[in-house]
Amino acid sequence: MERDYNGLSLFFIVTFNRIGEIIQLETKRYMDENNVETTWVIKAEDYKEMNNVFIPTAFDVLWRLDEGDFSYAKFSITQVEYNKPEKF
Length: 88
Hints:
Elements: E1 2-5, E2 8-11, E3 13-16, E4 22-30, E5 37-50, E6 53-65, E7 68-76
Antiparallel strand pairs: 1-2, 3-4, 4-5, 5-6, 6-7
């Protein structure tokens, strides 16, 4: 999947499970100031229905390094609101 926004291009490899849920997004990003592209992965799981939409509610964000995966962030979604244009 590739998207352009304000002249910037973003490319992800998207992996689906057997029932069509997104389980992983993978791309290349700069990990530090050395300008070496490194594989960056978001793993998504634990799909739940929230406001009549099934969404993943648990995410593990990691760098895929030569010495192994380095998980640096984990997120959980507990509440979703749609069509609320004000800041939160």
